[in-house]
Amino acid sequence: MAYYRPPGPPPDPALVRSLTQQQHDMRLRVRAEPLAQEPRLIAGCDSSFPTPDTILSVFVVLKFPSLELVKKVYNYGPVDMPYVPGFLSFREAPNVIHAFAKLTHKPDVIMVDGHGIAHPRRMGIAAHLGVLLDMPTFGVAKQKLTGTFAEPGIERGNISPLTDAKTGELIGEVIRSKDKVLPLFVSPGHRCDQATATRLTLACLRGYKLPEPTRLADYWAEQFKKEVR
């Protein structure tokens, strides 16, 4: 996800308390489990902010394992919530839900450009969306948000654990998706486990740093931006 981080005054403490409680309640609903069966369709999801007050969210749906593009949709709308660090999912989720509703081919699992449980309160955008949609989701992020890890080997396919700095809990895996490029941070969202998230990420690599579902979602986001400008 491409986040807009505007400057401004500190967030309202009451709002922060409310959002924290909502994340806590949603976290209790998250389930880590393998998929019931191998997916036939996998979606990629990405959001960006063409302006400080608007958001564009994209879904692409691909056949699995061939990764043939089946459908692409977007939704463009206003952003009603202010920027609050650690709670970016609340800015994005409403518009993402609108984009998802436009899909005529519903996926079996969603790969989200962002984090799953690899979040300070274990509720990154992938987990957030998974709970709201009651769909299997996992996150593939380009930057670490929390946790500690040892750098994986420089060749594609090398993996190292991402763990909570205090508890040692496994919250994700760090994957070298292409030789000698910066790694990706993969974590389960909802109705998905780490093994599944990692396996599907690796299965969707086609020579680029990003796996095809989120790479194509990002590509089509740039194309769709031309329609809304």
Key terms for this structure?
alpha+beta; eight-stranded mixed β-sheet; 5 helices
Oligomer: single chain
What is the number of E strands?
Answer: 8
Q: Strand-and-helix sequence, N→C?
A: HEEEHEHEEEEHH
Strands of the widest sheet, in order across it, are 3-2-1-4-5-8-7-6
Sheet with the most strands?
8 strands, mixed
Report how far apart the termini are. 19 Å
- If you average the pLDDT, what whole number results? 94
Helical fraction: 25-40%
Structural class call reads alpha+beta
How many helices in DSSP terms?
5
Supply Rg.
Answer: 17 Å
Strand composition percent? 15-25%
Q: How would you sum up the global shape?
A: globular
Cofactor: Mg(2+)
Keywords: Cytoplasm, DNA damage, DNA repair, Endonuclease, Hydrolase, Magnesium, Metal-binding, Nuclease
Enzyme class: hydrolase
Protein name: Endonuclease V
Descriptive report:
There is one protein chain. The chain is of the alpha+beta class and 229 residues long. The protein has 5 helices and 8 strands. The chain has helices at residues 13-27, 88-101, 125-133, 194-203, 212-228, and strands spanning 41-51, 54-63, 69-78, 109-113, 137-141, 159-163, 170-175, 184-188. It has an 8-stranded mixed β-sheet with strand order 3-2-1-4-5-8-7-6, with helices on both faces. Helix 3 links the parallel strand 4 (109-113) and strand 5 (137-141). Helix 2 (88-101) crosses helix 3 (125-133). The longest helix has 17 residues, at 212-228. The protein is globular and about 45 Å long. The model has no long low-confidence stretch (mean pLDDT 94).
